Amino acid sequence: MAGLSAVLNASEVLPRFTLGTLFTEWSLAPLPLVVTVWAGGLYLLGVTTLRRRGDRWPVGRTIAFVGIGLGAFYVATSSGLGAYDTTLLSVHMVQHMVLSMVVPLALALGAPVTLALRTLPAAPRRWLLVVLHSRVAKVLSFPPLTFTLYVVSPWALYFSGWYRASLESVWVHEMMHVHLVLVGALFFWPLMGLDPVPGRVGYPFRVLLTVLTLPFHAFLGVTIMGQSSLIGGDWYPRLATGPMGSWLPDPYADQELAGGILWGSGDLIGLSFFGVLFVQWVRSSMQEAKREDRRLDLVEARERASAARSAAGEHPD
Fold first, then answer.
1. Among 166, 168, 160, 191, which residue's Cα sits nearest to residue 179?
2. Largest Cα–Cα separation, the chain
3. How far is Cα 272 from Cα 176, in angstroms, rounded to an integer?
4. CB 9: neighbour CB atoms within 10 A?
């Protein structure tokens, strides 16, 4: 009974999970609220500072960072997804994909580092540049390392005691959320972000790294679906013996659904990443072509001027 009591204390007694409860079971978890308010406030302050001095900042970047990135982070951790993420593994898996893929991509497309470099006072800007050019930053953004972290982290989470610890400890649970976002950001920021961060590589290599994430999600999802043991040990079966047992699904069926969500959503989000990379690649090629046209026009103008001077020298008035 003591073990069951601990499980119920860590996971609230919730009503039957439905689409509606995603919008009704909200909480004011301190860490997500503080992170969202402070990050969003500082970003909007930077945008306001630019506009006051007459500079423009693309609206799309603000929407990506504040609306999609921070919005998805807060919804994933404080809405029904956050309420049921210790009750249903399938709900946690949706949350996992949002935090590890959707949030990092949207934050990167918001270009917060560029915004900071354009709005910070001189001293903080120098500190930020020192950090960006530091050896630590270069190591943490080294593509093979970030790819390895991104691939290995979920295996370590679900096939070690880490996941069970996140179910039993609120602190470990919140740190898991932060970890998912940070690892995703380290991997995707140099690949698809707009900021001048270390670790940026050519577009062919970016596409290759993105392609390599697809079989990883598929293999991990299939592995979870085929597991004969439950992720989280007896956590979910014990929940089923409590007050929520009348509506909780079979833990094995829910784990199979969770693996399918990881598999399917990984491929779907991966395709969206290809779309982003394709658009960026095309825009980069067009900008390069414009720069080359301007260079050729300048060379041609100089040649005409030189020819005109030569002609004037040969036929003086």
1. 166
2. 110
3. 25
4. 9
